[in-house]
Amino acid sequence: MEAGDLTSVAVHPNGNYIALSAPAKDKTKPGHVVFYSDTGKYLNDLTVGSLPDMVTFTKDGTRLLVAIEGEPSDDYKVNPEGSVSIIDTSGVPAELNNSHVRTTPLTQEHMNESIRELGPNKSEAYLNLEPEYIVTDDSGKYAYVTIQESNAIAKLDIENGEFVQVQGLPYKDHSLPENAIDPSDKDGKKELRPVPVLGMLQPDGIDSYEYNGETYLLIANEGDSQDYEGYSEEVRVKDIKDDIELDAKYYEDYTQEELDALVANGLFDDDQLGRLKVTTSHKFRDENGKYNVLVTFSGRSFSILKGSDLSMVYDSGNDIEQRIKDILPERFNANYEDFNELEVDGRSDDKGPEVESIEVGTIGNQTYAFVGLERVGGVMIYNITNPTAPEFTQYLYDEQNKDVSPEGITFVSAEDSPTGKPMLIVSFELSGTTSTFELDEIGGSEQAHPNDQDNTKNDNPPVNDGEDNDTIDSNDEKPEIEHHSEDPLVGQNSAIENPDALISETPSNVRNDSSQLNNNSTVQPADFSTAPVDTQYNNTMKNQKSVSQSEQPKHHLATETHNQNGTKYNTSINKTSTTNTILDKEDVNLDKQNASNDHSHSTEAQQLPNTGQSQSQLPLWVSLILGACLLLIGRKQRPKKK
Questions:
Q1: Domains in the chain, please, with CATH?
Q2: Is the pTM of this model over 0.85?
Q3: Where are stretches of biased composition, namely Low complexity (predicted)?
Q4: Are 603 and 443 within 8 A, CB to CB?
Q5: In Å, how far are 304, 603, 618 from 599, measured between CA atoms?
Q6: Closest CA to 98 of 32, 148, 37
Q7: Alpha-carbon distance 67 to 130, whole Å?
Q8: Tell me: the pLDDT tens digits for 165-217?
Q9: What is the tens place of the pLDDT at every residue in 574-598?
Q10: Are strands 8-11 and 17-22 parallel, antiparallel or unpaired?
């Protein structure tokens, strides 16, 4: 067996052996899955399809699922099918053979009007349905597969080995203030503004958890393009400006007159949209071949979907990009060569913070999403106990350890932790480090109260004034976390008689009609007009005024932690590097901001019952090996900025 780079590693739930995915040196040829014991002894290998990119076990360990990406050759002359292989691992790994492998391909019959037809040959667009990442539900009945480049997700019946649903994901309207982005790396400023652009979510990582009998999926909307020698969909706006005729019916916040005025005033210049990378492979074109819409890569966000029907219940809007701008402006949308060599704002023309990985963990009766930001670095933490109303709680970023580009994230529950406290193990591909964070305390409260905040669009939203109160002396005793809320229930009896009432059957941040599309457009753009955001805007681009948020002071502490309304508080996070076996506790005392710095986020976590999510019972050594392997894999795969 000859193999190229390793792409993924998974540890069997019993901890006795691991599985590795190993593509062939020619990625269009069949690859392998290789099994090793926990002592590193070779056990077996099986042949699978072209470019096995990710492996994961079902929670009971009886099946191993393999994402067969099937990428085309660089000259685009060979383009294998994408598929998922299901390996029966109920027996001993050393006795496995290819009769235990069942492969389910993605074919023409899985294409539908919700999925974009990617590639130069529309009749072969199904060949670009390329599985990227897989997660299984707790029961092991279904697997959920991200299909990144085609902006889709698939649901796989594991027992029957068939895809029961393949669904295109909605587009994101960046003309709305809550979806504003920084679209240029050459405008000389860090500025989020509404722009006439639709964004493809294009998720990479995916995870799941159970709530009230429903499986919820979390997707990390990184973005990716097909960019090969034989075919490339990726161009900069300025390079196709003569072929663009924007149509206002695709955008929520513009009239045709306003769009025409923007174009006349230099919309396609480098300091506006000229540098933004967009796709040429979409259906938003008129009979003359003109582009009526600009479509870019990445949602710059994470989203939550229902596993039952793949409908979206939440998207984080521009919350991540805005918080990085406020918390860590000196590394905003940075493009790194290493920790000390970076270009601030260098990824704004591409995918912004590049939300790549996502992990779910439960602490007490609260469930959290840990969101890895590949380019800017660090991990955002959101309370997702209520899947329709996640709340930002903390941003983990360790400048002193010079960690750059989180690739793999593993949550270790308090029960499995050697310290008795929950931990987060993160591998960083560019810096070549693996760090362990001991989560002493996460923002929010298990005794929090529900919020009656109206989730409708605000025409006159408040703007963060960026002022701070006096800092707390670093030697002071750590105070309790404080919450500031206008919620009338705070301090009262806030028991929820019917928790199901908090789950919206028709989420307000997803458009279910096609009124914004012409007859040639088959993918419904999403209406994210009510998605929660960190900071709103007084002016939009349609008024010919750029929108700039008040800059908050720069922070250079080893670990930045903020609660959901932007207020900083004292916290303790224990962190170790894999080069040091001693848990070195750092009490990081931060100054507390003025409570008038109000955000549209609720400042209280929803009081909900336990999710009932079952965490994987992995020993710490297994998690460390997993992180180290993902680190090595990621370092081989990282692309260069063009």
A1: 1-168 (2.130.10.10)
A2: no
A3: 567-582
A4: no
A5: 21, 8, 38
A6: 32
A7: 8
A8: 999 999 999 999 999 999 999 999 999 999 999 999 999 999 999 999 999 99
A9: 444 433 322 232 332 323 233 333 3
A10: antiparallel
